Structure to design on (277 residues):
């Protein structure tokens, strides 16, 4: 089951300080990494461009392996409180820096550099590797070693070729309606107005290889309120309530994402066990 989520630029509106906003983004990123989210879509909602930039920048920063961050992210105000961020520790980040430990078939993230007119890729092993891929200078790329230590040789690969979870991508969209109408797959709107998210309700999404997009609202507005009358023009979207009988007045976005993904994950595992039993 390939999952992506959509969250609004206004996701941080219930936090007042930049440090607290930064901490919240860290929690969101960790939740997405834990449950192997493919893409995080950030859609415009309200007048929250500054928060939107902060959200997108830090989500991308956290997904980037540590050794690449200084090259890809110059000093900027959005990263003022980067010290409070919790590392994702996903497979693309947990890689040895010792070149002697690089073997044939290993996959690494790197950045393309130019030395005396020749292109190399820096994969964080204190040794540049000749690069013949398509990515431009200064761009991030994913490579697989054709030859390990000491005669390094790599080829550029796509994330779809990697057998393990490698991280999420972050994409911006002008509004939620256009994102949902352009989406080629199943859509679940998370809402207290929806039907209870039972195993039966989720089974059609869990059983298929068709990508599923989970839509989340803002701290002030639910998805139904954000879309208004446009909701009736959207096909293949189901509203589900993942927190029936909640005792709190509201469920915070970070709680909603973590809880929703945990429920889907549990049902998915149960489905797989049932199929293999």
């Amino acid at each position: 089951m390939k999952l992506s989520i959509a969250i609004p630029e206004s996701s941080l509106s219930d936090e007042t300080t930049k440090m607290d906003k930064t901490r919240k983004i860290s929690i969101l990123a960790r939740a997405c990494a834990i449950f192997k989210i493919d893409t995080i879509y950030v859609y415009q909602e309200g007048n929250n461009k500054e928060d939107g930039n902060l959200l997108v920048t830090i989500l991308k920063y956290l997904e980037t392996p540590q050794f690449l961050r200084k090259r890809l992210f110059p000093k900027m105000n959005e990263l003022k409180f980067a010290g409070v961020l919790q590392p994702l520790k996903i497979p693309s980040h947990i890689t040895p820096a010792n070149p002697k430990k690089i073997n044939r078939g290993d996959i690494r993230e790197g950045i393309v550099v130019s030395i005396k007119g020749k292109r190399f890729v820096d994969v964080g092993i204190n040794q540049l590797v000749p690069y013949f891929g398509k990515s431009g200078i200064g761009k991030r790329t994913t490579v697989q070693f054709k030859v390990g230590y000491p005669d390094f040789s790599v080829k550029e690969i796509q994330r779809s070729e990697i057998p393990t979870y490698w991280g999420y991508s972050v994409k911006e969209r002008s509004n939620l309606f256009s994102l949902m109408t352009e989406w080629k797959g199943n859509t679940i709107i998370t809402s207290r107005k929806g039907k209870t998210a039972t195993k039966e309700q989720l089974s059609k999404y869990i059983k298929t290889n068709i990508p599923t997009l989970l839509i989340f609202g803002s701290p002030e507005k639910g998805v139904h309120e954000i879309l208004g009358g446009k909701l009736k023009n959207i096909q293949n979207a189901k509203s589900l309530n993942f927190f029936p009988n909640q005792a709190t007045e509201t469920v915070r976005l970070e709680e909603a994402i973590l809880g929703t993904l945990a429920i889907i994950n549990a049902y998915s595992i149960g489905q797989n066990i049932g199929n293999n039993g």
Q: What stands out?
A: The chain has two domains: 3-89+175-270, 99-161. The CA atoms of residues 225 and 276 lie 41 Å apart.
